[in-house]
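FIELD: query
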Amino acid sequence: MATVLQRYDTRAWLLFSAMAMLWGVPYLLIKVAVDSYSPVAIVCGRTLIGALLLLPFALRHGALRPALAKWPWVLAFGAIEMAGPFLLLGHAEQTLPSGLTGLLVATVPLFAAVIAFTRGDRESLKPARLVGLAVGFLGVAIIILGPGLGVDGGIGLVAIGEVLLVAVLYAIAPFIVARKLGTVPALGTVTISLAAVGLFYLPVAVFTPQPTPTVEGTVAVVLLGVLCTAVAFITFFALISRVGPARAPLFTYVNPVVAIALGVLVLGEELTPALLIGFPIVLAGCWLVATGGIRMRRPPAGVPPIAPG
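FIELD: result
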């Protein structure tokens, strides 16, 4: 990874490091927040805070009008990238450790390769990528079925399924951007999507019984909205402009490392044998699938990558 970024300056490395943290820490914050708020309230708070903070930037750059012109696809993107995944993650982390959640979300490239192949992209599953696909899913199987996982059978498997569904949704969302929103400024798409998701969930959150709020849980929701949503997207756009859309998403390979480390250090989560064995296998498989084992090629102009977080 260092070799593909070594040509860039200190600012690029700082942006890269910031993104690794900003989209590696949400799993810790969600785990803290679910003790104080329902998953739907967390999604509502996070998205509305993010939308309000991004709105001035979107207005200044004239990003809203092009996005509103394609509002059906913007709403579809918001449903697949935010409304579904954010809610599923909150529900899953009522059961799963935050580090395991972050690692399972890192399987996005595996599902993206399968989706690309079903859409006729034969290059998506060349030999190296086929190997990566097999290796990645082997790592997932080891994590789920291996010794020492410590997840309660029924509920645990349902939660794992929810997180893997999140990975599928995250894999689908960029195809909507590429096919239907490629000419729309990403800032406009993200701002309107966040606002729509937050407003959609607002009445549900208001009438859903909540656990007893705590200071820690409230701070976690605010940080999710400010840091992991608004600041993260602004930083992501800056990283894209600095290193290009092909290199920017490389930080996603560091996200699960951050998620697991924070889970262990802050929440005292256990590093099980299954996690220790499966973790590097999953990342190796994802890297092979995403790159084919070679230097990444630049995607078509005007198609910004959207990374999970």
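FIELD: remark
The longest helix spans residues 215-243.
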